[in-house]
Every structure is written in structure tokens, then in C-alpha cells.
Amino acid sequence: MMKFDILTLFPNMFSSPFQESILGKAIEKGLIQIRTINIRDFTLDKHQVVDDTPYGGGQGMVMKGEPIARAIEWIKSQNPSVWTIYLTPQGKPFNQKMAQELSNRSHLILLCGRYEGIDDRVRKLFADEEISIGDYVLTGGELAAMVLMDAISRLLPGVLGSDRSAEEDSFFQSLLEYPQYTRPPNFRGIEVPEVLLSGNHAAISRWRRMEALRRTWMRRPDLLEKASLSNEDRELLKEIVEQGRGEKIGDGV
Ligand code: 4FV
Description:
Layout: E1 2-8, H1 21-28, E2 32-38, E3 51-52, E4 62-63, H2 65-76, E5 83-93, H3 96-102, E6 107-112, H4 120-126, E7 129-132, H5 142-153, H6 163-171, E8 186-187, E9 190-191, H7 201-219, H8 221-226, H9 231-244
Parallel strand pairs: 1-2, 1-6, 5-6, 5-7
Antiparallel strand pairs: 3-4, 8-9
Bound molecules: ligand 4FV.
Ligand 4FV is lined by residues 87-89, 113-115, 117, 132-134, 136-138, 140-141, 144.
């Protein structure tokens, strides 16, 4: 079972996304547990102040260290081995490999910042890991926390219909997905690739590997560099490059 403790000023943001579909069922099945903790509940003053002006001046407000520290210490008093992640644009770019690694843990704190961010001292003292979901600025870390929870939870045994699909993920881990088709065989005049109707599973998996390699080569060559390619993959890539010179993005690749 994976336990997510969400530290946030807006706990209600987490109500609906996790009532629906796969994650909703995972909660019902007790495969994941989500606890939202309001940082404001850990303030000591009667006005429950959670932010203040930045030292050195400048725009916006900064989240105070004390309420965050007290909230994390409260959780750690229940489980000292909890792993604390701070969601921030300054963090490591999130990817599937990190989702895999985090899915092996059992208890995560996801610290959601607001305003200009948190006092850097509480980050230094309590963040075991800093993760970014992308090079853009959100109004808060909550949506980033939800992205992590979704990507991690679907890798937990029993959460997806069959664990095969998560394994298949790993096979295609570092490549873009191959194109998918479903009924009808002819949609607006476009046929499904013949091989997919052939029942020839060896030919189908070769075609899928080829299309995953082709898309990755066309759209994300940076991923191809990092991919662990088999000799067969290299043969397929030669074919693609031969073929590919003609095609450009938008050619439905
Ligand atoms: C973010 C990201 C992100 C920065 C200021 C919250 C905001 C505000 N978190 N990946 N990109 N956070 O934009 O994780 O406090």
C-alpha cells in the first residue's frame, strides 16, 4: 500500500480528482491512501499566518518555514522513514524512471508550495527530493503533486487492470508509444494498418516497435540517445532513417 501525505494550503483541491476512475478504485481497494494536511493547521498564531514578505524585498509572498516544519515533524513522529518531496520548478525533471523508483516506496510527503515558494531553510532541512513536472510556473505545487500521484499509483500492483500494461510500459520505457487503433476498421476513409488485423503477433510487435522507434526518432531524438536499443532496434532504425528522410512531422507520424 502506498501512502501519500499531501501538505497544502488547499486540501479540497484533492477531493474530486481521486474519486474518479482508476485512482478512485485504488483508494477503495486500499492500494493507495491519500491524506491531505492543511499547513495552516500547524500555525501557532491566532491569525494562522502561513506567509510573509520576502527578505530583501521584491514581489509576492513567501511561505513561512515554521508551519511546514511542524507539519512534517508531526508526520515523522508517526513514521520517521517517510520520504519528503518538494514540488518546485527548481527540482529534477520528473520522468517515468523516477515514477518507477518512487513506486517502490510506501510513504511519501508531497509538499505543495504557493506564492513565490517556501523559505529556503525549510527546504534545506526537510526536502529529501525536489521534483519539477515541467519548465513552466504554476500557481501552486498541488497540480504537480497530483501528476506524481497518478504516475506513481498506476505502477502499483493491482491498480491498473492488469499489471502487464505497466510492464509493457517498461519495455517501451524510453521510447514514445506506438500508434493505437480500435473499431471501426475504416474511419473517415482511413484504414487500420493491415498488420494489426493479421493476427500475426510477431509481425504486430515488430510493427509496433518500428512505429515507436520512428516516432521517437522524428519527435524526440533526445530520448533515442538515452534508450537501451537492441541490435534488432538498430536494424529497424536504419530502415526508418532510409524511409524517414521523405517524411516530416505532420505526415501523421
Ligand atoms: C512547479 C513545477 C511549479 C512555483 C511557484 C508553485 C509553483 C508556486 N512545481 N513543477 N513546474 N510550482 O510551477 O513542480 O509556489
